Amino acid sequence: MSRLPRLSRRLVLEAPQRVADGAGGWSEAWQVLGTLPAEVIAGAGRERAGQGAALSRMAYRITVRGAPVGASFRPQAGQRFREGGRVFHIQAVAERDPRGAYLICFAEEENAA
Fold first, then answer.
1. Residues 30-51: pLDDT tens digits?
2. Could you give the CA distance from residue 1 to residue 97 in angstroms, rounded to a whole number?
3. Are the C-beta atoms of residues 56 and 111 closer than 8 Å to each other?
4. How many CA atoms lie within 13 A of 89 on its CB side?
């Protein structure tokens, strides 16, 4: 059996929310869903040219406790984790084990260099 994850970091789970801008349009705001203990493991990184600056993008595997499908605190693609000023955009979520005791969130962090 694989080792148990070390859930030693506290990440804030956020979901995008459309908010009326008062001029007939919409803007995006982030709603806090809760704080989850997590294990964060860095993966491969890459760099690409952006508008006036290089952008570095780093992949992460973020492990959290399992939650039932549909639960508000179960991470899903399109949401993000925040840790202080750092933001991890969730790309996909999968069960880590057959019982679903833990979830692996495949996420990316992007930084302007």
1. 999 999 999 999 987 677 665 6
2. 10
3. yes
4. 9
